[in-house]
Design goal:
9 strands; three-stranded antiparallel sheet; 4 helices; four-stranded antiparallel sheet; alpha+beta
């Protein structure tokens, strides 16, 4: 698994791609439920599919390789973890060099949450390239409220991950 994992999904590296596989639980109302996670999955997939309308934005988002169904997840002890995941809620993305994990934040060194760039200790990096991308996402009806921006310092190579259709839920 890449990183500490999130409330909705875990990301696994396999064959040079990142696979975002959504969790089956725990059930935390109102949104972090089995059905809620399925809706978030569908919303994120739809958002990636909309990016073809804006080639510049598509270039500044992790490459989307499509949806896949997972047969099983095997834990470090060799046992199946299939019941922990929604095996039909998985998509593959470009594997990006995230750098080392920052021991203070728990995030990768090449990653910043968009909210940090706008309102936190990294506001000096909320530059035109990130602002422009955020505006373009909005024009497509894509929400970036939980997005991370990788390589945020570089206007040529920065990439967004973790976005979804606005008001999909």
């Amino acid at each position: 698994m890449l990183g500490p994992g999130g409330n909705y999904a875990h990301v696994f590296e396999l064959d040079g791609k990142a696979y975002k596989l959504f969790l089956a639980g725990p059930e935390i109302l109102p949104r972090q439920t089995r059905d809620g996670r399925k809706r978030v999955f569908k919303s994120q997939v739809e958002a990636y599919q909309l990016l073809f309308r804006d080639p510049w934005l598509q270039n500044h988002s992790a490459t989307f390789y499509g949806v896949c169904t997972i047969e099983d997840v095997i834990g470090g002890d060799g046992n199946s973890l299939r019941d922990d995941y929604l095996l039909d809620c998985c998509y593959a993305l470009e594997l990006l060099d995230l750098g080392e994990i920052d021991p203070i934040t728990g995030f990768y060194m090449n990653e910043a949450k968009l909210v940090w760039l706008k309102h936190g200790h990294l506001t000096s990096y909320y530059e035109n390239h990130v602002k422009d991308a955020e505006a373009r996402f909005k024009m497509l009806g894509i929400a970036t409220m939980d997005s991370s921006v990788l390589f945020y310092r570089d206007p040529e190579t920065f990439k967004f991950i973790d976005f979804e259709i606005e008001n999909y839920y």
